[in-house]
Each structure stands twice: as C-alpha cells, then as structure tokens.
Amino acid sequence: MEEAGRVAVIILNWNGKKFLEQFLPKVCACSAGMANVYVADNASTDDSVAYLQSSFPDVKIIINPKNGGFAYGYNASLCKIKAEYYILLNSDVEVTPDWIEPIIKLMDADKSVGAVQPKIKSFTNPGYFEYAGAAGGFIDVYGYPFCRGRIFDTIEKDEKQYDSVTEIFWATGACLFIRADLYHTLGGFDEDLFSHQEEIDLCWRMKLLGHKVMYCPTSEVMHYGGGMLPKSNPFKTYLNFRNNLIILCKNHPSGTLAWKIFVRMVLDGIAAFRYLLMGDSKDTLAILRGHWHFYLSIPKTLRKRKALKTHNLKPATCVYKRSIVKKYFIQHKRYFSDLNPTDFS
Description:
Blueprint: E1 2-3, E2 7-13, H1 17-31, E3 36-42, H2 48-55, E4 60-64, H3 69-78, E5 81-82, E6 85-90, E7 93-94, H4 101-109, E8 113-122, E9 137-140, E10 145-147, E11 150-151, E12 154-155, E13 166-168, E14 175-179, H5 180-185, H6 198-208, E15 212-223, H7 234-251, H8 257-277, H9 281-308, E16 319-320, H10 324-330
Parallel strand pairs: 1-5, 2-3, 2-6, 3-4, 8-15, 9-16
Antiparallel strand pairs: 6-14, 7-15, 8-14, 9-10, 11-12, 13-15
Helix pairs in contact: 7-8, 7-9, 8-9
C-alpha cells in the first residue's frame, strides 16, 4: 500500500483520454498542496496511460487488469493507497480553486461525518445543478433516489437556495469525499452492482452504522455528465432499475420490505409501459431485464443483508417518508422546495 499523505484524489478512467486532457490539468493545479492525485485506469484500450505518463509525470497511475466497472475499479485501486481521506472524482469534472479545504475542515470538525459531497453544477449549463448529485441525494419511502436541485428530469437553477451545510442521505460518486478507514471497514463498493447507485448503497450502509453523510456548498465543482455512459442509454436504465432494487432489498429494515418490493414491481411496471407508449422498446426491455436479474440476485443479496444485520444498526436518517413518484407525476411537485420538510426522517 502506497503512502499518499493525508488526502488522495483518485480519478477512475476508462478510455477517457479526452476528459483527462480537458479536466486533469485543473485538478492538479487546484489540488496542489492539499492532495496527491492518482488516476486508476480500468484497462483502457485507448492511449490514456501513455498520455498520462508523458504529460503528467507527477500523477500516479494505478493500472487495473480489467474493466470491472466503477465499483471494482475503485475497490481494486483504493486498497493500494493509504490516506486519511479519499476523494473519488469522475474524469469529467472541473474543479474550482477552493474545492478541497472546506470539506476537509468539515470532516475534521465532526468525526461522525463519514462522507461529503460538494455542490455539483452542470459544466455545459453552469447556472443549473447537474443531474448526478446536484445539492445532495435522498431516497423516498420506496427507495427511489432524487436530489435537492433535481427530481427525476427536472433540474433547478442554482439561485443559492441550497447554500447551507446539511445532512443528506447519499453523496454522489461523481465527487465523493470519504474517510479511508470507513471505506475499507464497509468493504468498499458492492462490485455486484458494477456501476450506478453503488454510492447510494455505500452511504446507506454508512448511515446504518451511525455515520452522517453531508453536503457542503462552499465547495463547488462542475460535472460534464454522461462521460462514460450517456444519460439516455438502455444499459444505464437496466443498471439503475436492477441496482436500486438490490440495494433496497439489501439495506431496508425488516417489516415492510416485502410490501415495498411489491409496490416497486408495480411502479417499475408502469415506468416500463410508459417507455413503451413513448416508442422506446429498448428501455422497456431494459427495465424488464433489470427486474429479472434482481430476482436471480435475491439469494446472494439476502446473504449480504444477513451479514449487515450482524452489526448494531441505527435507523437511517434523511429518508423521504412519502412517494416521490406520486408527488412528481400526480401532484406535480417538481422542486425539492415543494416537499414538506416534516416528511423527512
């Protein structure tokens, strides 16, 4: 294990040379004196590694033997880096000069804080929040994820309405600050998820062990979004629907779990039918395939659930106790500010 100092920035790369060319110089400049920068390469077939070796000799490279997705890539890489804090950063993120210090100060001041995300804005439309993370993530009573600043496809303009430090349910993997020892205690990301929502699973497990997940708006980054996998993509649809059911089954308290899985089957079925009506048969099939693979995964997921139950678990906070699907599609509540604060645990 390599000694990285107190803070290590780790960028996971797969055939992303164009993003490294565009965004890595600023990451290096804005991290100088605060963190060491690593690029973990998931067996790229472009010339990313050669480019890094010639253009960024001070950036340390970890070469993984295969492309096992986001979860595997970070797990395989972080076991080789010794630090107090990890910053997991997408290759398509533009950072700002003071992006590290405010969050490290927050985590230093409160040891119960396990993970933090900055404000995530759109690189292509900088007046607005970015889809993946925005101003911090939450889940509803049925496990559907959403964000302050982004509910489903409605993305809010940043008018400083979310400029206070606050506790959230999940922090985006696009720019995730996390205590290194806690990451390893939790066993890192669940590699069976491959990619998408693995950070929600990790944060959920973190909260069950009594740690807080926070949002810190004084740190701000700009996310290009869809760098490795476009936002509209049947494989992404498949991963999101499958993985969300897996993490719900894995982490949700007993009692109402079976009922909530049933409700999810109905709601996801409606989503699949909606795609079909829109002429999008590929996404319809992706949802059906996601459900089928979730059912096949149940025995393994229940074993993970049983292992988690051996710990002294705490109730998860920052859960929206209503249906975000109903609020958004039936009651037309498009913005986070439309939701009643007393409806959050």
